[in-house]
């Protein structure tokens, strides 16, 4: 079958391109050594001899320093007293844990592929066992290191460097409390044995998990801030009066207002960094802190877009690496692009300051020779140049090194583009050889393909899909005047969908419908959600009892879970709905005399697992019975579609469930228009389905940024001992839920005559779009591979394109639709 062969070669081309475009980064082997005045450096006492390094995942700078958002009262107190020096640390995108931990420990710039490996629990390709880092330097100099927290560290570093360790799971985002308690419970023992270790590393995940679940303004944030602040105070008090211990508190990255991260917005790249020691009090505060009283009040006139999250002194996060090495008098890691933080140079022995600067500059210049053939540095006079001038020149070298850290495999890239070009030409020829071929799919493909050359169009791609769908409906209104009412309903639904969420990456609208419902009209949100579930329960089920009973079962399980989840997360639910669900949960769990909150908590995982089991069983029965006895359960395709819709609603956050009601009304009216005027036009039906998939995907709040990948519903029914592959499936379903809904649009509206011919025709149109738009994207990424936004805009778009082809095109479009077509 030619279509299947072309699909296979298209996927091969994408894979080859990604292999060439996302290669592993070249790094220097070996470890750093002292190169200048070695005897002086070896005999000079370090500024600090003991380190407590606390990483609070997703600790955005304002969480530490800003008056309204920060509840770190102890940190504010020591910053004001001069016992702590604070910074805002810029974390290079992609702002996810794995690449940021690499930056924090080795000082190197991240590889974008690490953002993908970040979710692969059993991946070992990202290990730092053969790379130099400040941990390896401590270990090499016989320092005792202990670690407790995010198990990503245990994936990065060989376990033998830790004398004691315990990891906590970083992806079970439903857990706000236990994941941190599992770290804190070790502290009492560790400080009783503080003479036995030199470095204690703690990585707390709860704050990041709260962000993923409820956003940066979640009601759980204040309590988590206070918990972390109390832990930091306890650690500081346990250190005692010694001045030789450094307590360092750092965020690996920040988060956006939705609580997600991975992109390059100010909130995501601005992490807090505070160093605490009684030794600091002997010196004047840094210049940006000296006249500042913490917490800092933000300018009330600033809009969300104008907030830059820069508080106190601003540094590169990788600057922490050579600075830490200097403070502990250790050689600097050889792959570090960090520059010594000027404010902390005052702690060094004056005889050693320029030696450490010379070491830092020498290490940067050696690294620059290995990464680029250009001469990107000038000679520095370490005797006569001021420290400010030396730092400035090193920062220039640093800037160039960050730009030249990627080595592309151009042969693989060119082969992939040529292969995809051939596939594209074949599918275009195949399409135009059909004399009835409609130019609309090609026009849509060209518009999307050409838009990929502009970063702003990628960031605001939802705007293009909005104008495409409204343009198509406007033509329908002009040429089909006898369907004015249906066209009016279509336009109304489209406009409501358009205003439901904040979509895109450049602009923020404070009056999105989902935000208004969630914050001001939460009762109406739940009435709307209940109405949506009831709408699909009754739709098409009233004439067949088995079909109605399966819908009734799934609808009630879905409502029970969504209400229970909201109550457990301290969200308001109307008393009527809450009481109904409470009665159902009581009977389901056979629980009497149990407090409501405890009952709702205990039912979450069993409810979700029961729902998934019912979905699998009902889908299997419908497929089998639908083929053997098509009329017994009514329309088998309609029943399969309804079961999948309930699964999609189950995997959708409460604020977006109401959109499915609009989808249902919109679909009904689109069907009326098509039946009247375009019956049997598979090309038009498929194009509408395609445009609606992308339009609704973005209007759900998704963008082409990694930061908007929603993990909230990926853990439904998952306990602590979870399966990463199951979570991956659930994450894909929840993020692509609206696209899955509209991919099912042609199943019923397209007639069953010559069903396999129509199936292949639909697949060819989708393949045509993916080939044309994908070819433009691959060419764009190749031409603009040194563009400023290559890693923050173009590379995430490439990842989304790859994922869309695998999940939406192959799994949903080919595998699932083949099964459905079989039972038609």
TrEMBL record:
Transmembrane segments: 412-432, 439-458, 464-480, 607-628, 643-663, 684-702, 722-744, 765-788, 800-823
Residue span, GPI ethanolamine phosphate transferase 2 C-terminal domain: 405-821
Record flagged with keyword Acetylation: no
SUPFAM superfamilies (alphabetical): Alkaline phosphatase-like
Keywords, alphabetical: Endoplasmic reticulum, Glycoprotein, GPI-anchor biosynthesis, Membrane, Signal, Transferase, Transmembrane, Transmembrane helix
Annotated Pfam families: Phosphodiest, PIGO_PIGG
Signal peptide: 1-20
Pathway: Glycolipid biosynthesis; glycosylphosphatidylinositol-anchor biosynthesis
Membrane topology according to the record: Multi-pass membrane protein
CDD domains per the UniProt record, alphabetical: GPI_EPT_2 (cd16024)
GO molecular function: CP2 mannose-ethanolamine phosphotransferase activity
GO biological process: GPI anchor biosynthetic process
InterPro entries found in the cross-reference section: Alkaline_phosphatase_core_sf (IPR017850), Phosphodiest/P_Trfase (IPR002591), PIG-G_N (IPR037674), PIGG/GPI7 (IPR039527), PIGG/GPI7_C (IPR045687)
Record keyword Membrane present: yes
Gene Ontology CC annotation, any one: endoplasmic reticulum membrane
Cell compartment(s), UniProt: Endoplasmic reticulum membrane
UniProt family annotation: Belongs to the PIGG/PIGN/PIGO family. PIGG subfamily.
Summary of the function given for this chain in its UniProt record: Ethanolamine phosphate transferase involved in glycosylphosphatidylinositol-anchor biosynthesis. Transfers ethanolamine phosphate to the GPI second mannose.
Protein name: GPI ethanolamine phosphate transferase 2
Organism of derivation: Tetrapisispora phaffii (strain ATCC 24235 / CBS 4417 / NBRC 1672 / NRRL Y-8282 / UCD 70-5)
């Amino acid at each position: 079958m030619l279509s299947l062969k072309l699909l296979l070669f298209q996927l091969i081309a994408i894979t080859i391109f990604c292999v060439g475009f996302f290669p592993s980064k070249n790094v220097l082997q070996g470890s750093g050594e002292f190169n200048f005045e070695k005897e002086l450096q070896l005999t000079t006492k370090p500024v600090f001899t003991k380190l407590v390094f606390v990483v609070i995942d997703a600790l955005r700078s304002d969480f530490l320093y800003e008056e309204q958002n920060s509840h770190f009262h102890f940190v504010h107190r020591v910053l004001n007293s001069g016992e702590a020096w604070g910074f805002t640390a810029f974390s290079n995108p992609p702002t996810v844990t794995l690449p940021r931990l690499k930056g924090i420990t080795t000082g190197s710039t991240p590889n974008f592929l690490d953002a993908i490996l970040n979710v692969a629990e059993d991946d070992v390709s990202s290990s730092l066992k053969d790379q130099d880092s400040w941990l390896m330097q401590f270990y090499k100099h016989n320092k005792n290191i202990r670690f407790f927290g995010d198990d990503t560290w245990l994936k990065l570093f060989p376990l033998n460097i830790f004398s004691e360790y315990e990891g906590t799971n970083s992806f079970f985002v439903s857990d706000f409390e236990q994941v941190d308690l599992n770290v804190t419970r070790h502290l009492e023992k560790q400080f009783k044995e503080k003479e036995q270790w030199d470095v204690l590393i703690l990585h707390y995940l709860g704050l990041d998990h709260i962000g993923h679940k409820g956003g940066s303004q979640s009601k759980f944030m204040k309590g988590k801030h206070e918990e972390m602040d109390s832990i930091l105070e306890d650690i500081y008090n346990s250190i005692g009066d010694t001045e030789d211990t450094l307590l360092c508190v750092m965020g690996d990255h920040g988060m956006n207002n939705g609580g997600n991260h991975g992109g390059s917005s100010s909130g995501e790249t601005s992490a807090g960094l505070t160093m605490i020691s009684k030794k600091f009090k002997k010196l004047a505060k840094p210049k940006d802190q000296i006249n500042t009283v913490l917490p800092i009040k933000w300018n009330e006139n600033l809009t969300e877009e104008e907030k830059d999250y820069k508080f106190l002194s601003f540094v590169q996060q990788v600057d922490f690496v050579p600075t830490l090495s200097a403070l502990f008098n250790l050689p600097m890691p050889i792959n570090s692009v960090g520059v010594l933080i000027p404010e902390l140079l005052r702690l060094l022995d004056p005889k050693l300051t320029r030696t450490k600067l010379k070491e830092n500059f020498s290490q940067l210049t050696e690294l620059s020779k290995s990464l680029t053939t250009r001469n990107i540095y000038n000679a520095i006079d370490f005797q006569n140049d001021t420290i400010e001038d030396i730092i400035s020149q090193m920062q220039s070298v640093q800037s160039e090194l960050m730009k030249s850290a990627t080595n592309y495999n151009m042969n693989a890239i060119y082969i992939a583009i040529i292969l995809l070009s051939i596939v594209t030409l074949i599918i275009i020829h195949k399409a135009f050889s059909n004399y009835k071929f409609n130019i609309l799919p090609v026009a849509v493909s060209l518009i999307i393909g050409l838009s990929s050359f502009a970063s702003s169009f990628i960031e605001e791609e939802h705007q293009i899909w909005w104008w495409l769908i409204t343009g198509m409906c406007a033509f329908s209104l002009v040429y089909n005047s006898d369907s004015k009412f249906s066209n009016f309903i279509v336009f109304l639904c489209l406009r409501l969908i358009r205003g439901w969420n904040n979509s895109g990456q450049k602009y923020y609208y404070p009056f999105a419908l989902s935000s208004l419902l969630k914050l001001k009209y939460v009762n109406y949100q739940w009435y709307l959600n209940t109405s949506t579930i009831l709408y699909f329960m009754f739709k098409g089920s009233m004439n067949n009892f088995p079909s109605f009973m399966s819908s009734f079962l799934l609808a009630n399980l879905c409502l029970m879970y969504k209400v229970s989840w909201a109550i457990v997360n301290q969200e308001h639910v109307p008393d009527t709905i809450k009481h109904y669900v409470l009665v159902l949960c009581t009977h389901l769990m056979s629980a009497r005399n149990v407090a409501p909150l405890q009952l709702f908590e205990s039912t979450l995982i069993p409810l979700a697992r029961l729902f998934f089991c019912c979905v699998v069983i009902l889908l299997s029965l419908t497929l089998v019975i639908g083929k053997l006895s098509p009329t017994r359960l009514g329309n088998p395709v309609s029943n399969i579609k309804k079961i999948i819709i309930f699964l999609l609603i189950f995997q959708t956050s409460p604020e977006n469930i109401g959109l499915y009601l609009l989808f249902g009304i919109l679909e009904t009216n689109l069907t009326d228009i098509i039946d009247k005027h375009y019956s049997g036009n598979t090309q038009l039906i498929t194009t509408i389905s395609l445009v609606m998939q992308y339009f609704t995907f973005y209007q759900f709040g998704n963008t082409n940024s990694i930061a908007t990948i929603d993990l909230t519903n990926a853990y439904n029914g998952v306990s602590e001992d979870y399966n990463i592959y199951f979570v991956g499936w659930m994450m894909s379903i929840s993020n692509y839920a609206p696209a899955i809904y509209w991919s099912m649009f042609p199943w019923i509206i397209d007639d069953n005559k010559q069903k396999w011919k129509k199936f292949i025709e639909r697949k060819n149109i989708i393949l045509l779009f993916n080939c044309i738009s994908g070819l433009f994207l691959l060419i764009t990424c190749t031409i603009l591979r040194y563009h400023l936004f290559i890693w923050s805009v173009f590379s995430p778009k490439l990842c989304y394109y790859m994922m869309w082809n695998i999940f939406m095109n192959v799994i949903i479009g080919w595998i699932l639709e083949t099964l459905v077509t079989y039972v038609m």
